[in-house]
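User: I'm putting together a teaching handout on how sequence relates to shape, and I'd like one worked example. Could you take Ureidoglycolate dehydrogenase (NAD+) from Salinicoccus halitifaciens, show the sequence you're using, and then write out its predicted structure as tokens right after it?

Assistant: Happy to. First the sequence, then the structure tokens directly below it.
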Amino acid sequence: MAKERATEKLVSRGVERGPAGIVADVLLHADQRGVSSHGLMRLEHYLKRIEHGGLNVRPDIHIEMTSGSSFVCDGDDGLGHYIVHEAAEYAVDKVKEQGIVMGLIKNSSHCGALSYYVKEIAEHGYIGMMFSQTDTIAVPFKGSAPYFGSNPLAFGFPKGEGEYPTIIDIATTEVALGKVLHAQEAGGEIPYGWGTTADGEETNNPNDIKYLKHFGGPKGYALAFAIDVLTGILGNESYGTNIPPMYEDLHRYRNLSQSIIVINPKMFGNNLMFESMLKQMETELKDIPTTDGSFVKIPGEIEMEKAFESDEVVINENTYKILFEEEER
């Protein structure tokens, strides 16, 4: 029901039904994995940006091979979810013969949880990697003003037909901005270390957060640097503080860049061995004793378990009103 309602909301703003369905699917994917910061709560923002002219509802997406193993995807400033989905499908089609394919996505916008796309890739039997720049929100290590965004990265590893892939999807900040926004709507406190006030002071009040902090000090900062290089700078596009903000200037196209890498494991050895060795490694990790009596989790396992727990998702009151109570315009 929620997917259909989200799709209809986008269609009512001029988005074609196919792309609208992809966007809704990406949002639901995040909610089902317990990552509500990238779920249906984002729909309100997309609708507002469409109304203000900051998203192209009928983009002419153009993909061009630039070598035997590289391509550029021009998203024509449409909804990033559909643009990245199209680029991922294109890469999957090419990688069977090429072995490795890298695509640079330009003139895109916010594309939601990267786990959705690397999961798609892994379900085809390939390794998926994704990087995305975001607008300025995090202070560099020992810096006093923000420069890079949360700049997430994701990996998807196949484990065979019928097996759920191993998914890693992380931001280079302690948390994604969406988690702070979710905490603001849900109320309550957040852990210290997620971000700072405008004066650079750490706080546990989500309403006082002005900037985020990179995880691991210089390590997260260095990764954010590399991701801006592999996206915006590689494509001769925006980077750092030049990227239009997500929640301001809603009339402007954001020109975000993402990079996608797809690897065919068969080009490097027996694919069945790759899958069996990956599963064996995960089994060995789970056998490691812990200090609290629990067991070691595989990266992405918590989100995977949540995705299998129920077909239902929990949404906040504001998102419910947008989906089910607000009159169509």
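A couple of points you could highlight for students: The mean pLDDT is 93. Residues 133 and 326 are 32 Å apart (CA to CA).
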